[in-house]
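User: Sequence recovery, please. Input:
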């Protein structure tokens, strides 16, 4: 809340994609786009959010204010760097959230993320405001870990209900639904 930390890497984003995001960030800075200061409620760029898997990638600009022509150029740069979906979201609220009203999008409306469990593959359609597991490379392992522990400690769950708290799109609940009587997210 008190500081913005300019990162050189992020363990949740593959290095090649982080470098691409960094290029876009530098482009925006060169265009005079100023980072948002939450305490003063000043600046333009609140967040650059990425949603990336092996097949598709989404980049989301969350801004308080914007010059559409600059973000058109940034979106074209992102597309040239391999991003499939780019969104511009406007958030002029005082609250600190990485979402907002969709102003514009370029490319694909959604990306698809697969979660492979021991029985089947689940396909999730992800949009700019979709809450999905940040570390997509581990979610299938987490779900399979849960399945193995259910099998080892409970066995048949078909008479039980599953409560999936803070479920976002419901990844865990959806992947486990066929094992339970019902699921509530």
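Assistant: Recovered sequence (185 residues):
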């Amino acid at each position: 809340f008190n500081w913005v930390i300019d990162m050189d890497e992020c363990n949740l984003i593959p290095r090649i994609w982080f470098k691409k995001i960094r290029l876009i960030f530098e482009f925006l800075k060169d265009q005079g786009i100023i980072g948002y200061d939450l305490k003063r409620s000043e600046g333009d760029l609140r967040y650059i959010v990425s949603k990336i898997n092996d097949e598709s990638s989404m980049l989301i600009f969350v801004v308080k204010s914007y010059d559409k022509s600059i973000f058109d150029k940034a979106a074209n740069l992102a597309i040239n760097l391999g991003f499939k979906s780019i969104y511009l979201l406007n958030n002029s609220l005082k609250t600190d959230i990485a979402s907002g009203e969709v102003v514009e999008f370029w490319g694909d409306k959604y990306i698809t993320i697969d979660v492979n469990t021991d029985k089947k593959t689940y396909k999730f359609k992800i949009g700019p405001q979709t809450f999905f597991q940040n570390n997509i490379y581990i979610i299938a392992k987490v779900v399979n870990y849960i399945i193995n522990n259910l099998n080892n400690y409970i066995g048949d769950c078909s008479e039980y209900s599953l409560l999936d708290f803070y479920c976002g799109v419901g990844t865990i609940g959806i992947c486990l639904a066929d094992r339970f009587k019902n699921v509530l997210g």
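The longest strand covers residues 45-52.
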